[in-house]
Amino acid sequence: MTVSVAGAPFWTTPGLSPLLAVLNGGGEEARVVGGAVRNALLGLPVIDVDIATTAPPQEVADRAARAGLKAVPTGIEHGTVTVVSGHHGYEVTTLREDVETDGRRAVVRFGRSWQHDAERRDFTLNALYAAPDGTVVDLVGGLADLEARKIRFIGSPDARIREDYLRILRLFRFHAAYGDGPVDKAAFSGAVRLRQGLLALSHERVRAELLKLLLAPGAAATLAVMSDAGLIQPLIGGIADARAFARLVEIEALWRAEGWDVPADAIRRLAVLAVRVPDDAERLRGKLRLSNAEGRRLALMAGPVPDMADDAAAQAFIYRTGAEAARERALLAAAHGRPGMERIGRLAAQWAVPRAPFRADDLIALGLKPGRALGAALRRAEADWIDAGFPEEPGHIAALLRAAIAADEGPL
Fold it and tell me: Where is the Poly A polymerase head domain (predicted)?
């Protein structure tokens, strides 16, 4: 049976058909390849459209120039030229074969065999091509695996992994995103046998792949499998809490069902998986080359959450911590088994955090001179204002300020 993606939404992306027309003919052939074909067949959004071609990179650039299209040699050593057509950028890559690899980077040579190009790719469902008329070309059994939601290496799993050890992480990321049922047995066995190769990867590549995995629909079940096999701990340099991760995913969904804005977030999920104290956050920042902002977020999430007896206590915590940080800590605390954290989630979403209705100038107007005593009195007034439930009445505020000054002066 012929399978086609000609009716898929991405097929009408501006510039795609004209570019395929430019690249096809004159002894050369071009096809859409990889994720666009896979996602279209699954009914999922298509983000990027990549094209494979028999034409060498210079020929691609020459054809683009003759057609009035902009060509940028973004990965020329690997045969990739980005062509802008219809205001969209398309990566056009010459068919390739791997000559040698050290498990991190490959030396390739250009070829003209679609079969060889397919066989050098990682998984069968990523080696599907779409001809210019939309007909899907399957050379390695990808359609059957796609229908079965099975992530299977092309050929020998060990050989594919040794070409690039990042494929171990990609196996589990793709399984979490597209797979159904257990991880393919042969692929899993190869990943476990060769897991030491993960330690040779750059921190940046591990970071990018791991954060994508944490957001995949099947991340919780997949991480549990990886943790049991010892595949997560070396990457994060510590213990992985897959159970807390699974609870967090459930709690995020429950809080969203309540109407609270709790989008899935990779850094929050990383925190529940691997952060219990601030030192863990610092370790991860270096281990995964996180940005300073990401590292600070992790450290904030590791902060304590006091017991919440009532809404007043929750409001005080939210005010002192900030609504976003309070919600994040509450989510993590709930995932680690703390009851009653919904109170913080609800208030963080619904309560308009007030600003203190007084400043240092108000204390100065009451006779307090600038200096350490002023700062101490201001802090006491704010603490009393919080304890009083954030009152707004001018008379109440004035009484708080006078009491803060009197506390510093002591008994007459």
Answer: 30-152
Here the tokens at position 24 are: 């096809």
Which long-range contacts (C-beta less than 8 Å, at least 24 apart) are formed by 347-351? 347/311, 347/314, 347/315, 347/318, 348/260, 348/318, 348/323, 348/324, 349/259, 349/260, 349/261, 351/315, 351/318, 351/323
pLDDT digits (tens, 9 = 90+) for 190-204: 999 999 999 999 999
Burial class (CB in 10 A: 0-12, 13-18, 19+), 411: exposed
For 392-410, how does the pLDDT look when each residue is reduced to its tens digit (9 = 90+)? 999 999 999 999 998 865 5
Q: What is the mean pLDDT of residues 31-36?
A: 97
Q: Which amino acid is at 285?
A: R
Q: Hey, how many other C-beta atoms are within 10 angstroms of the C-beta on 134?
A: 17
Query: What integer pLDDT is reported at residue 411 of this predicted model?
Result: 47
For residue 376, the Cα-to-chain-centroid distance in whole angstroms is 43
DSSP 9: G
pLDDT band for position 121 (cuts 50, 70, 90): very high
Q: Which residue has the tokens 């171990």?
A: 168
pTM, two decimals, is 0.87
CA–CA separation, 293 and 301 (whole Å):
12
Q: Which long-range contacts (CB under 8 A, 24 or more apart) does 79-86 make?
A: 79/108, 79/110, 81/57, 83/19, 84/15, 85/14, 85/15, 85/16, 85/18, 85/19, 85/22, 86/13, 86/14, 86/15, 86/16, 86/18, 86/19
Q: Which whole number is the average pLDDT over 106-121?
A: 87
Distance from C-alpha of 303 to C-alpha of 50, rounded to nearest angstrom:
44
Q: Are 208 and 72 in contact (CB under 8 A)?
A: no
